[in-house]
Structure formats: structure tokens, C-alpha cells
Design brief:
single chain, 247 residues, 0% strand, globular
């Protein structure tokens, strides 16, 4: 049933012109960054050829694209997530959904996976862009995999946070603005401390992505994104369960 709900949410996203506009916007921005970084690599090629330890395609072209994608996705995910539950509440279709013979957990996970599937498609197109460089040289697959895993984990936390904020209100715009506020807060929280090992940095979205961006896999960073995602999914389940009890 979870996959059925996820498929329905994914289809609803693609029915909306907003999803296509966002997907086109993502590809336009990332393709422009890709071509810019590729030109930078070509300009540096004479210097790179003289240094055996010089960075390659992946470091100069691919990694910066994934870094840019984290920022762009932070901007677009609230636009996609704000309608997940808020629109159901505004259109008064939420009681019908909650009275259906499915559990709240299945509803929440279905909506979450539907949005995550859309984001995974966008990330997949980015990976294809990176793999196109195989025609001109070698890629550091470890670095590429690290960036890919980090971006997918970050997308899952974005989607879970957006889903929860959408479950709190009947106004999609309020949900979108709230999601922006929470994501930006978690993104910029490390600015509040000058200590790189400070407790505040534990909550920073971008700080935990930095190890993935270097092609390394740290268990604490994986756990951070999984815990963040699980926490907001549980909050969404609790919120909708309260709605079902009131109904």
C-alpha cells in the first residue's frame, strides 16, 4: 500500500506544471554549472598535465556540481513538499484519506517516498551528466559515490522536514515558508559557533555533507541524516494520528 500511495503522489507531482518547471530549472542551472566547470578544467589542463597529483575530472567538475545541487534542492524542495498534506487539508479531502483502510504510517511513508522518488530522478539526471565525462577521461567513482550518497541522504531529510511542516497547516504557502525557515536554520546553524568541533555543528546539515563531498563515508554523518529523516517522519505520523483521533 505504501508503494501505491507513493506512485499516486509521484503521478500527482508530474501532473502539476510546477514539477516540470522545477525539474527544468534544476537541469538548466546544473547544466550551466557543469559546462562552466568543464571549461575551467579545459583551461587548467596544461597545468594539470605537468602535475602528477593534480585533481581530475571528478574534483574539478563533478564535486562542485553536487555542492551546487544541495543549495538548489534546498530552494526547490519546499515548493514540492508544501502541498503534500496542506492541500489535502485545505481541500477537505484529508478526512477521506485518514478514514481509508490504511495506517497513518503507510500514508506518511507513501507521501514521503513519492517526493523522494521525484528528487531521486533529479539526482539521477545529475549522475548521468557526470557519467558523460567518461567519454573524455576517468572518473573517481569513490568521490562520485560519496557525493551521490550524501545528496540522496540530504534529500531524504529535506523531504521529511517538508512533509512534517505540510502536515501542520492547511495553507501550502505557510508550509513552504516554514520549511524554508527550518532548512535554512539547520543549514546555517554552524555559523553560530567558531568551534568546528562544537556541539552546534552536530545539527548542521552542510557540516555533515562535507565528508561525503570529499568521497569519505563517516558513520556519524549517515546516522545524522537517517535520524533527522526518521524524527520528522515520526512527527508527521503523530500529527496525522491526532487528526484521525479528532475526526
Amino acid at each position: 500500500m505504501i508503494l501505491t500511495i507513493a506512485g499516486k503522489e509521484l503521478r500527482r507531482l508530474f501532473i502539476s506544471p510546477l514539477a516540470w518547471v522545477i525539474l527544468a530549472f534544476l537541469q538548466l542551472i546544473l547544466a550551466w554549472i557543469f559546462l562552466t566547470r568543464l571549461q575551467t578544467f579545459l583551461d587548467l589542463q596544461p597545468q594539470i598535465a605537468m602535475s602528477p597529483a593534480a585533481p581530475g575530472f571528478t574534483e574539478i567538475v563533478v564535486a562542485p556540481i553536487f555542492g551546487t545541487a544541495t543549495i538548489v534542492l534546498l530552494m526547490v524542495v519546499p515548493l514540492l513538499s508544501m502541498r503534500l498534506v496542506a492541500e489535502e487539508r485545505r481541500n477537505q479531502t484529508l478526512p477521506f484519506l485518514l478514514s481509508a483502510p490504511v495506517s497513518i504510517t503507510e500514508i506518511v511513508l507513501g507521501k514521503f517516498l513519492g517526493l523522494l522518488g521525484f528528487l531521486a530522478l533529479a539526482v539521477g539526471l545529475l549522475v548521468l551528466m557526470a557519467l558523460s565525462l567518461y567519454g573524455g577521461g576517468k572518473l573517481d567513482l569513490g568521490l562520485l559515490t560519496g557525493n551521490l550518497l550524501g545528496l540522496l541522504l540530504m534529500c531524504s531529510s529535506f523531504a521529511a522536514i517538508g512533509l512534517y511542516l505540510s502536515s501542520l497547516t492547511m495553507h501550502p504557502l505557510v508550509a513552504g515558508v516554514g520549511t524554508y525557515a527550518v532548512l535554512l536554520g539547520l543549514w546555517l546553524i554552524n555559523i553560530a559557533t567558531a568551534d568546528p568541533d562544537g556541539v552546534v555543528n552536530v545539527l548542521s546539515l552542510i557540516k555533515h555533507y562535507e565528508t561525503f563531498a570529499r568521497g569519505t563515508l563517516a558513520l556519524n554523518d549517515v546516522v545524522y541524516y537517517l535520524v533527522l529523516t526518521t524524527l520528522f517522519l515520526l512527527l508527521s505520523i503523530r500529527r496525522l494520528d491526532a487528526d484521525r483521533l479528532r475526526a
